[in-house]
Amino acid sequence: MTRHIIPLDTVTTRISAPISANPTLNPVLPPNARGGCAAKSCGSSSGSSGASDLPPEVWDKVKNHPCYSEQAHHYFARMHVAVAPACNIQCNYCNRKYDCANESRPGVTSERLTPEQAVRKVAAVAARMPQLSVVGIAGPGDALADWRHTFETFDQISRQFPDIKLCLSTNGLALPDHVERIRDLKVDHVTVTINMVDPAIGEDIYAWIFFDHRRHTGREAARILHERQIEGLRRLVEAGILVKVNSVLIPGINDTHLATVNETVRGYGAFLHNIMPLISDPAHGTRFGLDGRRGPTPAELKQVQDQLGGGARLMKHCRQCRADAVGLLGQDLSQDFTMERVGEVTVEDRPDERRQYREWVERERQDRQQAAQSAQAVGRGLNTAVAPPLLVATCSRGGGRINQHFGHAREFQLYEVDGSGIRFIGHRRADHYCQGGYGEEDKLEAVIKALEGVPVLLAAKIGVCPSDRLKEAGINVVTDHAYDYIETGVAAVYRAHLAALAAVEDVAVARAS
Ligand code: CLF
Ligand code: SF4
User: Fold this and answer.
1) How far is CA 433 from CA 397, 413, 415, 473, 476, in A?
2) CB–CB of 398/74 below 8 Å?
3) Residue 347: what pLDDT?
4) Which of 65, 103, 320, 429 to mutate to test the pocket of ligand 1 (most atoms within 8 A of CB)?
5) Whose CA is nearest to atom 6 of ligand 1?
6) What are the residue ranges spanned by the domains of the chain?
7) Which ranges of 251-350 does DSSP label H, i.e. alpha helix?
8) Which ligand is nearest to the CA of 225?
9) Do 370 and 380 contact (CB within 8 A), yes or no?
10) Cβ atoms of 26 and 140 closer than 8 Å
């Protein structure tokens, strides 16, 4: 096959040599990073999917999937191929001129692909990005509304790239009709968007569904959709397929109902539950947007997640990505891989690079686990009166390390630490401060707003001016832990925080006596 070359400067994630042999080419490693011993397991700082809390066969399925494992999202990339433009229902949070809000933020999909184009695109991404581990179909409509394109695409991809996992996202209406085909194609991961298990609530979420050759509306539509979703979920689980349930959190409609949804889908065997905030900008022209229904604040989202925390494996690292997303979850390289850039010729695949990268990740995970375990001990045993929780934001390009310059960060990963350990709790987005080599004041103010309530930020580097401005706003930027693992840095700042609290206490006691 002839190679079609994409200009190197368009892609930031290229790794052109064995990773372990060439860490300086690895975007996630510091120049002096070391590998660890080869091992399979890894600890987790989040509620979603670590080796220690899963049977080995399940861990094997999720360990390289950036959505099904919080750990994996530090290392592995997914891409979506937008081969499914049609939809069989109308959600009030969606305008199909835009992306599917189930699985993406509402930016237009750059292009819709034929199955052949999708395969060429996968080849181009795989050749440039050994981190690629999953190809998903998540719209821009519903992946099963026009199932022929979806299955033809999966069939071709699985033949050409047998080591890349297949992933599918659906509203569930057509799902019961396709479970066998999904299983036969070895699609190991399916997402079903379930926003309600009560048609009385569903009738406020869905305008109509198209089922059995006709349109249904109101409570009847919601009832049919609910029954089909649950039947599809149950049959997928029976077929041994891992199911993630996405629920859009819609304040005033299903916010208090999501605990029941959680309980129900867990009861049917869903592996993961992902609560996604409603995005409702009137400019997108959705029913909810035009009606002025707002999305939840970060605090409201966290509150609902915390309520579900006890009995559920929750996904908290979702980025609500586009139907043509490419890259690590926090990245958007979709514009580097438009069909115009990919060109007409299929790129020669290099599966050895993916294998080498995965081997390197196994070693790195072991190393990180050891670092995380000792970091988790920080404050252990102290009660919350002595060791109150601290929120810490981090700048990371991946690898679970503090390895990004503040000015380049488009998002900040958020951790909470207290006497019970360190937990990943989500991310906050903001446009990056450095634009064309210069810092922009309005961007800095937007970052400060995004980091509201977060007193500490860990970055690899920051300029004096933005650091001073952040300090004025109550955000202390720490760069002492550049290239350390996130848990190591978070534990260190928490230790310093506890020491400062103890010093204040000592002064108070001394004054009182
Ligand atoms: Fe894509 Fe979805 Fe598969 Fe992931 S996304 S089809 S499960 S490969 Fe992931 Fe994107 Fe969130 Fe979806 S971050 S929107 S959960
Ligand atoms: Fe839009 Fe997806 Fe709902 Fe269809 S299922 S209306 S594409 S959000």
Assistant:
1) 15, 16, 21, 16, 17
2) yes
3) 81
4) 103
5) 136
6) 40-342, 377-512
7) 258-267, 287-291, 298-308, 339-342
8) 2
9) no
10) no
Query: 377-512 falls under which CATH superfamily?
Result: Dinitrogenase iron-molybdenum cofactor biosynthesis domain (3.30.420.130)
Q: pLDDT value at position 164?
A: 97
Amino acid of residue 476: N
User: Which CB contacts under 8 angstroms, 24+ apart, belong to 60-63?
Assistant: 61/188, 61/189, 61/242, 62/242, 62/271
Strand order through the sheet with 206-211: 89-91, 206-211, 214-217
Cα(509)–Cα(224) distance, rounded to whole angstroms?
A: 66
Handedness of CA 209, 278, 64, 407 (dihedral sign): positive
67: pLDDT strictly greater than 90:
yes
Q: Is 94 in the pocket of ligand 2 (CB under 6 A)?
A: yes
CA separation for the pair 263, 308 (Å, rounded): 9
Q: Which amino acid is at 370?
A: Q
User: Is the CB of residue 220 less than 8 Å from the CB of residue 248?
Assistant: no
457 near 476, Cβ under 8 Å?
A: yes
Burial of 158 (0-12, 13-18, 19+ CB in 10 A): middle
Which mutation among 87, 97, 170, 208 tests ligand 2's pocket best, with the greatest number of atoms within 8 A of CB? 87
Report the separation in Å between the CA atom of 164 and the middle of ligand 1, taken as the mean of its atom positions: 15
Q: Which tokens sit at 418?
A: 């207290």
314 backbone dihedrals φ, ψ, rounded to 5°? -105, 140
- Could you count the other beta carbons within 10 Å of the beta carbon of residue 426? 18
Residue with CA at minimum distance from ligand 2 atom 5: 171
Lowest mean pLDDT among 331-335, 396-400, 429-433, 467-471: 429-433
- Measured distance CA(294)–CA(416) in Å, rounded: 26
pLDDT, position 459: 96
Note if the pTM is more than 0.90.
no
- Model confidence at 312: pLDDT above 70: no
Beta strands across the sheet bearing 189-193: 314-315, 272-277, 242-249, 189-193, 165-170, 132-137, 77-80, 326-327
Question: Under the phi-then-psi rule, with left for phi > 0, alpha for psi from -120 to 50, and beta for the rest, what region is 213?
Answer: left
- Residue count of the chain, please give it: 513
pLDDT digits (tens, 9 = 90+) for 448-495: 998 999 999 999 999 999 999 999 999 999 999 999 999 999 999 998
Among 165, 164, 173, smallest CA distance to 351 is for 164
Mean pLDDT over each residue of the chain, to the nearest integer? 84
pLDDT at 81: 95
Domain with residues 40-342, CATH architecture: Alpha-Beta Barrel (3.20)
What type of residue sits at position 352?
Answer: D
Bridge partners of residue 132, in order along the sequence? 77
Question: Would you call 318 helix, strand, or coil by DSSP?
Answer: coil
